[in-house]
Design brief:
By secondary structure, this protein is an alpha+beta fold. It has 12 helices and 6 strands. The chain has helices at about 1-10, 15-35, 50-60, 70-85, 90-110, 135-155, 160-175, 175-190, 200-225, 235-245, 275-285, 305-320, and strands spanning about 120, 130, 225-230, 250-255, 265-270, 290-295.
Amino acid sequence: MSKLLDTLSVVKTFKFWKELVIMTLGMFVTAAAVYYFLVPSKLIIGTISGLSIVLSNIFAAAGINIGLSVIIMTINAILLILAWVLIGHEFGAKTVYTAMILGPLTDVWDAILPWQKIANENLTTGSMSVMGDPWLDLCCFVLLLSAAQALMFSINASTGGLDILAKIVNKYLHFDIGTSVSIAGAVICCTAFFINDFRMVVIGLIGTWINGLVVDYFTASLNNRKRVCIVSKEYDRIRRYIIDDLHRGCTLYEVIGGYSNEKSIELEVLLTKDEFSKLLAFIKDNELPAFTTAGNVSEVYGLWTKHSHKKKIKAEAESR
């Protein structure tokens, strides 16, 4: 009963519905990438969707008509069961939701605009292509998929499929998670030999490698923060601005100048790019003497990232 009440309390929160919308949009983009850039060209990237395309073509050659969405849902269902048994409840409802809607969303795109209406035959490979070249199809697919994956990872979700398999490999074979994704992706790419020539398989392997690089880039961009260090005699005014106006915490250090041998206070704070711009404008507009340095931080953990913690700091500042 208590677990049910906890679940209901989570469902009622704004955060739950916001993330549900983000997950749905992310999977809608993923489905478009699969349907328009993998299905027509039979380009196999190291994903569960790629494996599903291989199986769909094998079944079709054998005279068995099974829809791509059915195969995707079946494979994801099996992986979700394995994840639940072998890993536990870590993935939770998010992974179940995202993994199970990918197949149906490909059918939605098919109903909106079938790829047959916009694809043309590639004279070099003899396969169909929306962009007219497998390399362009590869680039479009990787960009869309990587952006969707990075967005999902930013809210502690995933597209399911290969991510689940990689986590199982990571837990029991103790490989790095990136290595696990690469190994699983490469194995799936090699199944394309059943339906594609050597050239197309190589393109798929390159695409799998590029996908990992682009995901890292998008993830770093979404999580990018500024680590700002300021040395100033007016440090207290700057500190008050950071706390009262930007609603961020900061840390103060006592430092000694190597040239002057004078003691000063250094202020350190983590800010978004927009907040950093506001801080620089405040220092400039008030003509505060300050020595400022800033560097990029790609990952931040802990209370900083929680909106509730930011509101708490604001409330404490207003009460003083």
